[in-house]
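Input (structure):
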């Protein structure tokens, strides 16, 4: 549930805002649609009650929604999920949605957005680490963990020792 990331955001003073479905009312002609909370509650109930998950990794969320909801409801849910997963429901497996609901709750990482966007997290983290400690474009050939910390060896012969290392891959 990304407890460490949430703690890091608090430590770095990064503001988080709630991001649960009810916080984003669906609008019909500029007026909030009161049917959305009930629809989402129904969906959550279906997802939580889905005990047989075998094969759902091969079923798209869209197909899962089509099985349980009317075409009009699917359009709404598809829109919401495209915002939630940043992908269309055609490309998200049903099991991913089910697991997301099962692991949700008030402490879930999915329940928050970084105020100002996720880039803010990267920027604040880089400032905290210090740009002099960030090495870009390095081809890492070996990482060795020792009692003193971590040794990182690069293809260009550079070697760095540190207590902690953050590696990112494209």
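Output (sequence):
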């Amino acid at each position: 549930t990304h407890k460490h990331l949430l703690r890091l955001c608090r430590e770095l003073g990064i503001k988080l805002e709630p991001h649960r479905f009810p916080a984003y009312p669906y609008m019909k002609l500029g007026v909030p649609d009161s049917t959305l909370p009930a629809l989402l509650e129904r969906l959550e109930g279906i997802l939580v009650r889905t005990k047989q998950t075998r094969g759902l990794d091969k079923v798209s969320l869209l197909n899962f929604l089509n099985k349980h909801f009317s075409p009009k409801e699917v359009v709404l849910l598809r829109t919401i999920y495209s915002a939630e997963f940043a992908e269309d429901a055609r490309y998200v497996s049903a099991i991913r949605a089910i697991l997301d609901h099962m692991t949700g709750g008030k402490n879930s990482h999915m329940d928050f957005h970084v105020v100002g966007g996720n880039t803010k997290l990267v920027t604040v983290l880089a400032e905290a680490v210090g740009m002099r400690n960030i090495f870009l474009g390095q081809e890492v050939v070996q990482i060795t963990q020792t009692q003193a910390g971590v040794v990182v060896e690069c293809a260009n012969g550079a070697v760095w020792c540190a207590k902690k290392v953050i590696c990112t891959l494209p």
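Notes: The longest strand covers residues 140-145. Strands lie at 16-18, 27-28, 31-32, 112-114, 140-145, 150-154, 159-162.
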